[in-house]
Amino acid sequence: MTSPNDSNKDTNNKHNDTDKQSSDKQNSLLAGIIERATKSGLGRKKLNPSAVESAVAKNMAKIHSNPTKLRLAFLGGGSFGTAMANLAARNGCDTTLWVRNKRTVKAMAKTQTNKKYLPGHKLDDRLKYSHDLAAAVKDKDIIFIAVPGLAFRETLKNIAPFISGQSIVSLTKGMEKDTFALMSDIIKEELPEVNFGVMSGPNLAIEIMKNMPSATVIASESEPLRHAVQAALHSAFFRVFASDDVKGVELGGALKNIYAIAMGMAAAYEVGENTKAMILTRALAEMSRFGVEAGANPLTFLGLSGVGDLYATCNSELSRNFRIGNMLGRGMNIDAAVKKLGQTAEGVNTIQQVHEKATREGIYMPITHALYAVIYEDKAALGVALHLMEAGFRSDVEFVMAHDHSNAALTAHMKSSASKTADKDSDKDK
């Protein structure tokens, strides 16, 4: 006679067999996709896991099934760092938000709000606060760094003595001034043995705090780390997607700031929808063109960290870079605009960095070069825009068909147009 327990065992065994068959089928499908991607040149060789990553991997399986076991530190009390820390605390993670200023920490702990960056938004009661860097990062599983790009390297140097196996995830978008280093490059330089990842996407902090459906991308070579970040931050209103293209995801988050400034300037001139659509699509072409030269997968720019972040940042007055561009379009100089904004607009530095690198390496970046001319060479925005419209012919979608004219020819045409305009202005003055 079969007992109820035996019956349950048979049922469980059937479920297990079904799950295994499904898993094998998925693994087989995934292997086929990877094989085809590798043959097409889009695949990338996997790195061998370091000793640190191996140690982390042993713990991540348990963490993924129970995110409340995750111990997290978020460094930086700006809008995005605070919003992400709040999400993690709300998900039940042991979460500490580190802010440099002791007085600010006391005020946040007392009021459960970030009055400077997220006024009027109550933070989760379980979120902890600290101004003690050593205490904030010791014995944590993951350290999320959300400080401005200018302070990123210094922050890594400051936490280095307290690193004993923690993973690092960058929430900072942009490039280091004068070095062209992305945040992942800085992590590899300052903490070479650390398991790391980067996060990017259309993530306007105020909308996240209002529980408006949003999504982001966690990019890392480490699958366990990707799973851990998903477990920590994924919620009903905030989806976390995964990628292993660290370079592509990070470049998307950095480059889109350039074009948000361009769109802010365009908005100041009250351009039409056709113009906005043209700026967005040509911006995406520039981003993917630059990304491929840097070793990224061009398909990454079609995702959340590419076109998704580009669209959100270029179409929102909440965007710092959009606001900077809008002020520039209304005649304000860059120093006055930055001062009025009162926050870091990463795109200003990124324009200079990308312009210089693209010029050195012959990468065709007309919008970036035009913005550089307006911001750093004091050229008239409207005149620069007209030169762009006259700048020859190219094919529509990058990597689909050859361009009709070389970058050199188009650049020469732009310089020629600029020279003619300058001569005309000179004649008028006479």
UniProtKB/TrEMBL annotation:
<feature type="region of interest" description="Disordered">
    <location>
        <begin position="1"/>
        <end position="26"/>
    </location>
</feature>
<feature type="domain" description="Glycerol-3-phosphate dehydrogenase NAD-dependent C-terminal">
    <location>
        <begin position="245"/>
        <end position="380"/>
    </location>
</feature>
<comment type="pathway">
    <text>Membrane lipid metabolism; glycerophospholipid metabolism.</text>
</comment>
<feature type="active site" description="Proton acceptor">
    <location>
        <position position="256"/>
    </location>
</feature>
<dbReference type="InterPro" id="IPR036291">
    <property type="entry name" value="NAD(P)-bd_dom_sf"/>
</dbReference>
<feature type="binding site">
    <location>
        <position position="205"/>
    </location>
    <ligand>
        <name>NADPH</name>
    </ligand>
</feature>
<dbReference type="Pfam" id="PF07479">
    <property type="entry name" value="NAD_Gly3P_dh_C"/>
</dbReference>
<comment type="function">
    <text>Catalyzes the reduction of the glycolytic intermediate dihydroxyacetone phosphate (DHAP) to sn-glycerol 3-phosphate (G3P), the key precursor for phospholipid synthesis.</text>
</comment>
<feature type="binding site">
    <location>
        <position position="80"/>
    </location>
    <ligand>
        <name>NADPH</name>
    </ligand>
</feature>
<feature type="binding site">
    <location>
        <position position="321"/>
    </location>
    <ligand>
        <name>sn-glycerol 3-phosphate</name>
    </ligand>
</feature>
<keyword id="KW-0560">Oxidoreductase</keyword>
<dbReference type="GO" id="GO:0051287">
    <property type="term" value="F:NAD binding"/>
</dbReference>
<keyword id="KW-1208">Phospholipid metabolism</keyword>
<feature type="binding site">
    <location>
        <position position="256"/>
    </location>
    <ligand>
        <name>sn-glycerol 3-phosphate</name>
    </ligand>
</feature>
<feature type="binding site">
    <location>
        <position position="320"/>
    </location>
    <ligand>
        <name>NADPH</name>
    </ligand>
</feature>
<feature type="domain" description="Glycerol-3-phosphate dehydrogenase NAD-dependent N-terminal">
    <location>
        <begin position="72"/>
        <end position="223"/>
    </location>
</feature>
<keyword id="KW-0520">NAD</keyword>
<feature type="binding site">
    <location>
        <position position="117"/>
    </location>
    <ligand>
        <name>NADPH</name>
    </ligand>
</feature>
<comment type="similarity">
    <text>Belongs to the NAD-dependent glycerol-3-phosphate dehydrogenase family.</text>
</comment>
<dbReference type="InterPro" id="IPR011128">
    <property type="entry name" value="G3P_DH_NAD-dep_N"/>
</dbReference>
<feature type="binding site">
    <location>
        <position position="79"/>
    </location>
    <ligand>
        <name>NADPH</name>
    </ligand>
</feature>
<dbReference type="GO" id="GO:0046474">
    <property type="term" value="P:glycerophospholipid biosynthetic process"/>
</dbReference>
<feature type="compositionally biased region" description="Basic and acidic residues">
    <location>
        <begin position="7"/>
        <end position="23"/>
    </location>
</feature>
<feature type="binding site">
    <location>
        <position position="320"/>
    </location>
    <ligand>
        <name>sn-glycerol 3-phosphate</name>
    </ligand>
</feature>
<dbReference type="InterPro" id="IPR006168">
    <property type="entry name" value="G3P_DH_NAD-dep"/>
</dbReference>
<feature type="binding site">
    <location>
        <position position="319"/>
    </location>
    <ligand>
        <name>sn-glycerol 3-phosphate</name>
    </ligand>
</feature>
<keyword id="KW-0443">Lipid metabolism</keyword>
<feature type="binding site">
    <location>
        <position position="100"/>
    </location>
    <ligand>
        <name>NADPH</name>
    </ligand>
</feature>
<dbReference type="InterPro" id="IPR008927">
    <property type="entry name" value="6-PGluconate_DH-like_C_sf"/>
</dbReference>
<dbReference type="GO" id="GO:0046167">
    <property type="term" value="P:glycerol-3-phosphate biosynthetic process"/>
</dbReference>
<keyword id="KW-0521">NADP</keyword>
<feature type="binding site">
    <location>
        <position position="173"/>
    </location>
    <ligand>
        <name>NADPH</name>
    </ligand>
</feature>
<dbReference type="Pfam" id="PF01210">
    <property type="entry name" value="NAD_Gly3P_dh_N"/>
</dbReference>
<dbReference type="GO" id="GO:0005975">
    <property type="term" value="P:carbohydrate metabolic process"/>
</dbReference>
<dbReference type="InterPro" id="IPR006109">
    <property type="entry name" value="G3P_DH_NAD-dep_C"/>
</dbReference>
<feature type="binding site">
    <location>
        <position position="346"/>
    </location>
    <ligand>
        <name>NADPH</name>
    </ligand>
</feature>
<dbReference type="GO" id="GO:0046168">
    <property type="term" value="P:glycerol-3-phosphate catabolic process"/>
</dbReference>
<feature type="binding site">
    <location>
        <position position="201"/>
    </location>
    <ligand>
        <name>sn-glycerol 3-phosphate</name>
    </ligand>
</feature>
<feature type="binding site">
    <location>
        <position position="309"/>
    </location>
    <ligand>
        <name>sn-glycerol 3-phosphate</name>
    </ligand>
</feature>
<keyword id="KW-0547">Nucleotide-binding</keyword>
<feature type="binding site">
    <location>
        <position position="173"/>
    </location>
    <ligand>
        <name>sn-glycerol 3-phosphate</name>
    </ligand>
</feature>
<protein>
    <recommendedName>
        <fullName>Glycerol-3-phosphate dehydrogenase [NAD(P)+]</fullName>
        <ecNumber>1.1.1.94</ecNumber>
    </recommendedName>
</protein>
